[in-house]
Amino acid sequence: MRRRTLLSGLAAAATAPCMPALAQGAAATTFRYMPQADVTAVDPMSTTSYGVRNHGHMCWDTLYGPDENFEMRPQLCEGHVVEDDGLRWVFTLREGIRFHDNEPIRAADAVASIARWSARDTLGQTLRARTEGMRALDDRRVEIRLKQRFGPMLEALGKPSSYPCFVYPERFATVDPARPFTEVVGSGPYRFVAEERLSGARAVYRRFEGYVPNPRPPSLLGGAKIGHFERVEFNWIPDPGTVAAALQAGEIDMYEQVAPDLRAVLRRHRDIVVDRIDTGGTIAHLRFNHLHPPFDNPAIRRALLHSINQSDYMTSIMGDDRSLWTDGIGAFPTASPLANDEGIQALMGPRSFDAAREALRAAGYANERVIVLHPTDVVNNNALTTVAVDALKRSGLNAESATSDWGTVLQRRSRQEPPGQGGWNALIVLFGGIDLGNPGVHPLLRANGRQAWFGWPTSPTLEALREGWLGAPNLDAQKAIARRIQAALWQDLPHIPLGQYFIHAAWRRNITGHQKGMTLPINLRRG
């Protein structure tokens, strides 16, 4: 695996005494961060990659955001009023907020940003379908008039992930989300430094001195987002051993997702803290491309339920420590009140590759090639894909890995062409629990064809159940519908859940200010 020559002296770092390399002078105002993935694009609407999402939270703000208890609080907004039996919402922006070009953030910018976001986001599409009209009443007030009540309005506008409704200048927000913009004029605490961008290695941010933080105390994304450091560097280093050595040597300050086999090593270091910040965990999925053979045939997709073993996938990345992962995962993560056991025997009963091969024959599988997108530079994704390709082959599929870096996978997965023309058949997808807690936000349960998340499944049953969930009067009714959704998952199978696991972050002990819920380099300080 290739290594970046970004850091010096790493060969000796593992054995030499670790000195805090950034403890003096101007270097103390720089925060060096190892993200979970490279910033492959600057437009957060271009991909659901968490590396790009986190870049988004550095540069832009949303109208609302979750606090550490995941309650929605005003962010760019001062507040809102709801009238006409929930059919009219008026949002008021805070005074004095500005973009990075020092232009004021106006209601017209927010209207255009909501429109752009709602064309692509799972929950935004639902809001869009229920909206009668949206306009700027003046420079600070946005009016949304609905045809039908929409209960999760604040949860939609404050989504922290996949996709957040960031507020862009109107001239950027009117750009088709299918054509990503390449210039960054943000609304958040840090400016993107384009001239220092090194693709595949580094993204740099400088504190925006004109930023006006939310007046509330810091609390994840529902309070003040404060840039205590003048400069933040995202240093992408594919080799975990190199990252661990750099952290021990004080050459980086934080490692967002510690490779499982390095947790114990880093915990033994007196100047390093290893802890779980993202408490929602991550669920792995095998996602199918429903547009092309063989996985356009639901019987072929269902054949794999005979052989997929969630524990095989989890142990490949997290080992045998069951405190770090769990199997028996269905449509929703364990922390969701909608998690249930409906039909879970489809994945937890006896496993048999012979049964999978027989089911494939019965389904008419004609030995078509199965191209599996395989990023080799993202540790967990690489390991999970290796297990998946082996399982597909042993199940009787003519499967092969299409190996590449992560950026190439993100580009290729958006292609709807046949696999032989640059498309694909399957890939491993990792989503945090924050994105999967209910049918309204869950991107992989949306089954509206070519408007759905990559893979583009079509399931009128899942779509109707999702609408039913959005209209459910209480949690008990939502839980009942969630069981029906999980039953439909095993039948239509837009994807196969592969288990849930929990990742730790690591940082130098003198870094404080972490906000539980999402790992973000915001509100952190040294000493």
Average pLDDT score: 94
Number of continuous helical runs: 16
- End-to-end span in angstroms? 35 Å
**Unreliable residue stretches:** 1-23
Describe this structure in words.
The longest helix is centred in the last third of the chain and has 18 residues, at about 475-490. Mean pLDDT is about 95; it is low at about 1-25. A hairpin with a 5-residue loop joins strand 2 (about 65) and strand 3 (about 70-75). This protein starts with 9 loop residues before the first helix and ends with a strand. It has a 7-stranded mixed sheet with strand order 8-9-10-1-11-19-12. It is of the alpha+beta class and about 525 residues long. The protein has helices at about 10-15, 50-60, 105-120, 120-130, 155, 170-175, 240-250, 265, 300-305, 310-320, 345-350, 355-365, 380-395, 405-410, 460-470, 475-490; strands spanning about 30-35, 65, 70-75, 75-85, 90-95, 130-135, 140-145, 190, 200-205, 230-235, 255, 270-275, 280-290, 325, 370-375, 400-405, 425-430, 495-500, 505-510, 510, 525. Helix 15 runs antiparallel to helix 16.
Structure summary:
With about 525 residues, the chain is of the alpha+beta class. Helices cover about 25% and strands about 20% of the residues. The strands form five sheets. A seven-stranded mixed β-sheet has the order 8-9-10-1-11-19-12.
